[in-house]
Amino acid sequence: MSDTAVNPIRVRKIGHVGLYCRDLDRMVDFYTRVLGFQVSDTNEKGLVFLRFGADHHSFVLARMPAEDREKAAGPTLIQQISMEVADLDSLKRMRAYLLAKGARVLGSIKHEGPGGNYTFDFEDPEGNRLQFFSDMDQIGWDGKSRPREQWRRFTLED
């Protein structure tokens, strides 16, 4: 029996990294002005989606909850690590596999709005949030992302 029959997970690349920020405005300024990222979108939760290539976002900055700002001294906490997989069918197989292995899966597969991708979140043994995704929008020659009114959000049934 081959490894692919036992373990269906085949990551294509790290998709995006999300950071919680104590001072979101300062962080956006640093990543755009200093490091040269471009803002693709912001959503109603205040998340800022940044890119440096054609993917809709490669980096996400999120305001740290107020109750955590004081106790989170030092480096910013990782909000999530996201990894691209081949397609929606792969996501479904991977989610079922993780559930069967007893992993803590955080909800169903969702179509998440900005970026137009399918995604689901899960945790590693220490509680770090990880995410698999597929079908991310690509930023075209005009540098524009999908307009907000075209964002579609829904959850897929298992």
What does this structure look like?
Helix content is 20%, strand content 30%. With 158 residues, the protein is α+β, with helices and mostly antiparallel strands. It has a single domain, classed as 2,3-Dihydroxybiphenyl 1,2-Dioxygenase, domain 1. A 9-stranded mixed sheet has the order 2-3-4-1-5-8-7-6-9. The longest helix has 13 residues.
In short, what is this structure?
Helices cover 20% and strands 30% of the residues. The protein has 158 residues and is an alpha+beta fold. The relative contact order is 0.20.
CATH topology-level name? 2,3-Dihydroxybiphenyl 1,2-Dioxygenase, domain 1
CATH class: Alpha Beta
Overall morphology:
globular
Structural class: alpha+beta
Cα radius of gyration in angstroms: 16 Å
Number of strands: 9
State which percent range the strand residues make up.
25-35%
Distance between the termini: 27 Å
Order of helices and strands: HEHEEEHEHEEEE
CATH homologous superfamily identity: 2,3-Dihydroxybiphenyl 1,2-Dioxygenase, domain 1
For the report, how would you describe the main beta sheet? 9 strands, mixed
CATH architecture: Roll
Number of helices: 4
* Strand order within the widest beta sheet: 2-3-4-1-5-8-7-6-9
Which parts are unreliable, with pLDDT below 50 for 5 consecutive residues or more? none
Total domain modules: 1
In round numbers, the mean pLDDT is 85
What percent of residues adopt helix (DSSP H or I)? 10-25%
